Amino acid sequence: MIFDVTTPTFAKAVLEASRTQTVLVDFWAPWCGPCRQLTPALEAAVKAAKGAVLLAKMNIDDHPEVAGQLGIQSIPAVIAFKNGQPVDGFMGAQPEGQIKAFIERVAGPAPASPVDTYLAEGEALLEAKDYGQAAQMFGGVLQMDGANTRALAGLARCYLGAGDLARARQALEMIPEEARKDATVAAAFAALELAEQAEQLGDLAGLQAKVEANPDDHQARFDLALALNGRGDHQGAVDQLIGIIRRDRSWNEDGARKQLLQFFEAWGPKEPATNYGRRKLSSVLFS
């Protein structure tokens, strides 16, 4: 991926190689301060490109001929070759972000890694509530990277969707403490906590009957919201909490609004009920 090139090897290592893969040539010299500044950023960007480009390093003190033929008068200079021809380049030290943008321009975006592909597919399946297939995707990630926190959180979500709270907790407990502030992980923990609360509430029909018998029984309505959420009726859960806020915003030290915010965290921003709930909450609080 990163190699030294000389005048005798240039034709094969750069020109011929560039017919199948973009090759960057870094023209540098040992005495050049900006070259030393560029090197770590350039090499990091090339490694991040995951094989999209090769990097050939040419010391112009030892091999000045190619730089002279290309008209390079100052270094560092980086020239991109494709199909045996120079196609683009830049001079001077550049930050890694600009180098990455240059690489994407000449070679296209870095290919997705198998881990990234499996994670994306798993999360799409999870959103579609295909818990079995999603679990297989997250399991595939964990075979490649056993400590991947997104995969562990996703697997826990699959277990939650299937109603297996014990295995969901086992998956989440494998995530180290310092990684639990990540939004995806925090949302999975919040969802587990809500599911465990719902499991303790008992019969849904009984809670609905209590609310119908006394619409001002805020605790019963609150418990009903938790139970509905535990059964996947997110919009119904929102409606019950909004009902409490409409009747008594200060009930249980603003407990209904706080619970609604916990729902939003657990569901995530892509869940339709999150947007539905935010609109309902805004209309109540600012009406």
CATH architecture of the largest domain: 3-Layer(aba) Sandwich
Helix/strand order:
EHEHEHEEHHHHHHHHHHH
Query: How many strands, what sense, and barrel or not for the largest sheet?
Result: 5 strands, mixed
- How much is the average pLDDT? 92
Shape assignment: elongated
Which residues sit in consecutive blocks of at least 5 with pLDDT less than 50? Answer: none
User: If you consult CATH, what is the topology of the largest domain?
Assistant: Glutaredoxin
The quaternary state of the protein chains shown equals single chain
CA gyration radius, whole angstroms: 29 Å
Count of the separate structural domains: 3
Distance between the termini: 61 Å
Range of helix content: 55-70%
List the helices and strands and how they pair.
Layout: E1 2-4, H1 7-16, E2 22-28, H2 33-48, E3 53-59, H3 65-69, E4 77-82, E5 85-91, H4 96-107, H5 114-127, H6 131-144, H7 149-161, H8 165-173, H9 183-199, H10 204-213, H11 218-230, H12 234-247, H13 251-267, H14 272-285
Parallel strand pairs: 1-3, 2-3
Antiparallel strand pairs: 2-4, 4-5
